[in-house]
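haha ok so turns out i had the wrong file open the whole time. this is the CORRECT one, sorry everyone. sequence first:
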Amino acid sequence: MFYQFSGKLTREGDACFIRIPFNVWEVCDTQGTLSAQGTIAEQPFSCELTPLGKGMYEIAADQTITEAVSGKDTFPVRFTISNRKAYIGGNSPYSLANPIRKIDSMKLITQPNDGLCGQTCIAMLAGVTLDDACEIMHCRDWQASMGKMIDTLDYLGIPHADTIHYTAGSDVALPKCAILMEKMGRYSHYLLIHDGIYYDPTQGIIDDFDKENLVGYIEIPCA
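then structure:
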């Protein structure tokens, strides 16, 4: 899985770095020493991320990178965590050729209490109950992360894009179907868009969504 955002170069003394604009622990469901590889302004890079604490990291920029972004206010950053391990292991009865269901419609499911929005999104995408989604994901209230959701989609054979796009509140054109991450206090709130309609585990079906609150999204290809 790749993570893409618009980066900025920061200089502090002789050091140059690019701050990752999201909580890596929450999104990737991975902690500790993290090895990253990808591109910065189309320039390949590979390094260990520099921890800032509480899930925030930055990418150290060497001379090759600083030269590649010289004169640019912002530039595209795309990376993956090369030493991340999948959350859900074992054999799956599903595959891309045999998914749990074909996404050609969406039925609203709402969460009975806070902290289950990720599991509820999986339940809607998979066409299963919320209890079933929680069992498949092996996580309770407040334990769902984008990393766990992606691993669950893989287990269920539900296709998804290979990149999570971080929009930082910009007015982007959203795909037909996607999992959206919304700013909501300490944690991200997850909801779905399908055919121009928003399916919010808390609010129900809504016709409009303030993209200034959008952290990012991952596309789910559908019919």
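The chain has two domains: 2-81, 117-219.
again sry for the mixup
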